[in-house]
Amino acid sequence: MFRLATNPSILKQYVDSFNWGHILHNLTFVIIDLVLISIFFLIIKVIGQSLVNHLFGKYLQKEKKIGPKREGTLKSIATNTFNYILEFFWLYSVLTVIGIPVGSLLAGAGLLTVALGLGAQGLANDIITGFFILFEHQIDVGDFVVLDTITGTVEEIGLRSTQIRGVDDSLNFVPNRYITNICNMSKDRLKAEINIRVNPNSPIQQIIDIVKEVNAKNIPLTDGIIDEPQLLGTVDLGDGTIAVKEWIPCKDTAKFAVQFKFLQLYLEAINDAGITLPNNKLITPIPQK
């Protein structure tokens, strides 16, 4: 039996039984159809992307109906939705050209349908959560946010996930259904927090007077500050150090610039006054018995 199966004459008869001309003819037309379909959908993608860019890049900016962050968010959602729909129809067309009856398979595969239905629950949750994030203006592209353990800037909001560029420049993909607690630090106004660490024997009142002098001179000249500074005085930072704390209300886009600028001005003025500040955290030693 083994010799019969490996007989060259039988294999040759089996191979010769194929109508290679017909097979190559059909294969050529299938390949041509796949190339034409791919080119067609590529053209549709380019045209659609151009329309999206035109709508969000020119018309809405001209009409001034939405801000730049909101525009970026809506543009991201529109682009993702368009790409998902286009990819679905491209895949459906490719399978149809190959000869796979997609409709019949989906209609007859009961277990597959149930499995897909269970798997689609997560996708549905992602889409619904993403819709509410968009509808309620919870976050927009360009916002600086804290999502649980992830801190960074929103780069893209999609139907399934949100992309966060971390402070270490890492790109984090967060499924929308897992976004349960959002701390948005880019909602119009923030407080630039400034802590000037001091020694227990430092001239606290003199340092506070220096801070007030610096504020009186520089706050009217600084863009982004929207209210008077709140000088809280001396506080315990909870790590063995004390500091003179101040909050400066400012626009969300100016927070870090204001914080860096005024901390530098305070330190320079305190140094010019001959006051020595601690170089490191001041830890009070426990006396040994």
From TrEMBL:
Q: How does it sit in the membrane?
A: Multi-pass membrane protein
**Residue ranges occupied by any Mechanosensitive ion channel transmembrane helices 2/3 domain in the UniProt entry:** 81-121
Q: So what family is this one in?
A: Belongs to the MscS (TC 1.A.23) family.
Q: What InterPro entries has UniProt attached to this entry?
A: LSM_dom_sf, MS_channel_1st, MscS_beta-dom_sf, MscS_channel_2nd, MscS_channel_C_sf, MscS_channel_TM-2, YbiO_bact
Q: Where is the signal peptide?
A: none
UniProt domain Mechanosensitive ion channel MscS: residue ranges: 124-187
What residues form the membrane-spanning segments? 27-52, 98-118
Tell me which species this is from.
Apilactobacillus apinorum
What protein am I looking at? Mechanosensitive ion channel family protein
| Localization in the cell | Cell membrane
Q: Which UniProt keywords apply?
A: Cell membrane, Membrane, Transmembrane, Transmembrane helix
Major location category of this protein: membrane
